[in-house]
Amino acid sequence: MDHLSYKTLSVSKATANKGWVVIDAGDATLGRVASQIANILRGKHKASFTPNVDCGDSVIVINATNLRVTGKKLDNKVYVTHSGYPGGQKHTTVRELKAKSPAKVVERAVRGMLPRTRLGREQFRNLFVYDGAEHPHEAQQPKQVKINL
N or C: which end of the chain has fewer CB within 10 A? Predict the structure, then answer.
């Protein structure tokens, strides 16, 4: 047998085969969509996944306004931010954030599922979320991906 066929391939930034993917988030649940987006951003859906390299695809999410949140999370789930100054803590519910910017809700959910490292921040830059059905990335020829619900 050829012993070289058992060699594990480690992808580098130069050899990573990165593509573009479109996900239609209409009428899907926020957490289920966000977890699949995070897997695609990290590259875990590929056979050549390397945990220390950005080998994932760029993801375009459309129809972010139609995402559903189950239960009472619209009013009970609270995002907390702090400015760093005394008394600088701010509380925002999902309903308030969705009314202001539906794309921010998806971005917050996906960011929480990525690693909190330089690599995670680099992978998060490959996420593009849009409220409506149009996006300006047609030149990249993205593939339509059906999400598993």
Answer: N
Amino acid at 138: E
The residue segments making up the domain with residue 113 are 20-145
Give the number of C-alpha atoms closer than 13 A to the C-alpha of residue 23, restricted to the C-beta side.
30
In one-letter notation, the amino acid at residue 103 is: A
Query: What amino acid is encoded at 121 in this protein?
Result: R
- Helix, strand, or coil (residue 4): helix
- Using one digit for the tens of pLDDT, what is the confidence trace for 47-70? 889 999 999 999 999 999 999 999
Q: Which CATH number fits the domain that encloses residue 33?
A: 3.90.1180.10
Q: For residues 43 and 13, what is the distance between their CA atoms, to the nearest angstrom?
A: 12
- pLDDT attached to residue 59: 98
CB 39 within 8 A of CB 45: yes
Number of domains in the chain: 1
pLDDT at residue 3 greater than cutoff 80: no
